[in-house]
Design brief:
alpha/beta; seven-stranded mixed β-sheet; 14% strand; 382 residues; 12 strands
């Protein structure tokens, strides 16, 4: 029998998904493990959102949806982008996808020809370069530095631009660093996109989880060059509902919808009605977001103080719910560090596939009790 495609054989599976699956399996086997792996809120989906799903079921809203999403949700998205991000978009310039991942995957499939280059700022979310490669593109890394708070240097990005540059991926707040890029940096990157005529892919999935600083959407400066990607997962604790969304130039959005029409058809219809509730019941949703953000900030501070007391180095994150821990104090590299921590019954994600070498990623989307337990086990290890 003939084998798999070279494209698939060259693809690396998601390290974050694999490590989290391993941690969950160990817990299922009864191992007393503290998992700091998942990029997933530990809060339950808000009750008003779940109730909207129940109503949709009761009303028989269980049929196929249009590839770009139900019209009511696309209208709400256009309003959300206007209200929260300052983006003037029509409903036809929005799309609903099966999670934020599909929005990015469809986007790269729609934009890239073989050999097109996409600049990714390292450390980066593990799926960006793999999605680019699956679309025939070439990821080009531009490193950020811990001493700069992992904030990119626009001049370093400029030096990486070539005639084949098709896009730049920006993720603020950032996974895995937690960095929130200053407005002036995002403005400089938007100007580069216009000047050199490439697309700016702005992944803003963590926009509501900022503890210092403010969120800024670069699409306000370069609307014809920017595709803004977001989703319901992080803000509304709707990871399993698989609802992502994006906005951008109408032709790009239509191409993304055409790809959905030949693959997933559409996101889950019931989940779309639930997401509509999350986006339109502002009082209830904002109360949930504020509660979660306050809890995450308290957990972040607890974790940073604990790591500092142990003499361990970590750049203070201003957003998201991750800390990148430098591993020089207890391991030769990030792989050994993750293995040693797992032996101490603390599960973390090695930074290798994030291009965060000599670091491991700790997620504080877990209880204060778990964080204290993890710090105690790390103290014993050290």
């Amino acid at each position: 029998m003939r084998g798999l495609s070279e494209r698939v054989k060259a693809m690396k599976p998601s390290a974050t998904v694999a490590v989290n699956a391993r941690a969950l399996e160990l817990k299922r086997q009864g191992v007393d493990l503290v998992p700091l792996t998942a990029g997933e809120p530990d809060f339950d989906t808000p009750e008003h959102v779940k109730e909207a799903a129940r109503r949709a079921l009761a009303q028989g809203k269980t049929k196929y949806a249009p590839p770009a999403g139900i019209p009511e949700l696309r209208e709400a998205l256009a309003e959300k982008f206007r209200r929260e991000n300052g983006l003037a978009v029509a409903p036809e310039e929005t799309i609903v996808t099966v999670g934020g991942k599909q929005a990015l995957f469809n986007l790269f499939q729609a934009l890239l020809d073989p050999g097109d280059e996409v600049i990714v700022l390292a450390p980066y979310w593990v799926s960006y370069p793999e999605m680019v490669r699956l679309a025939g593109g070439v990821p080009v890394e531009v490193a950020t530095r811990p001493e700069d708070g992992f904030v990119p240097d626009p001049e370093a990005v400029r030096r990486a631009i070539t005639p084949r540059t098709k896009a730049l991926v920006v993720n603020s707040p950032n996974n895995p660093t937690g960095a929130v890029y200053p407005q002036e940096v995002l403005e400089a990157l938007a100007r580069l996109a216009v000047e050199h005529d490439f697309y700016l892919v702005s992944d803003e999935i963590y926009e509501h989880l900022i503890y210092e600083g403010a969120h800024f959407s670069p699409g306000t400066l370069a609307p014809e060059h920017t595709i803004t990607v977001n989703g319901a997962a992080k803000a509304f604790a709707m990871t399993g509902w698989r609802i992502g969304y994006a906005c951008g130039p109408r032709g790009v959005i239509k191409a993304m919808a055409d790809i959905s029409s030949q693959s997933t058809t559409s996101p889950d219809t019931i989940a779309q009605w639930a997401a509509l509730e999350a986006l339109t019941n502002l009082e209830a949703s904002q109360a949930f977001i504020q509660m979660a953000r306050k809890a995450y900030q308290k957990r972040r501070d607890l974790l940073l103080e604990g790591l500092s007391a142990l003499g361990l180095k970590a750049v203070r994150p201003s957003g998201a719910f991750y800390v990148l821990l430098n591993t020089d104090a207890f391991a030769e590299d990030e792989i050994q560090a993750a293995e040693r921590l797992l032996e101490a019954r603390v599960a973390v994600v090695p930074g290798t596939d994030f291009a965060a070498y000599r670091h491991v990623r700790l997620s504080y989307a877990t209880s204060e009790e778990n964080l204290k337990k993890a710090l105690g086990r790390m103290a014993t290890l050290l």
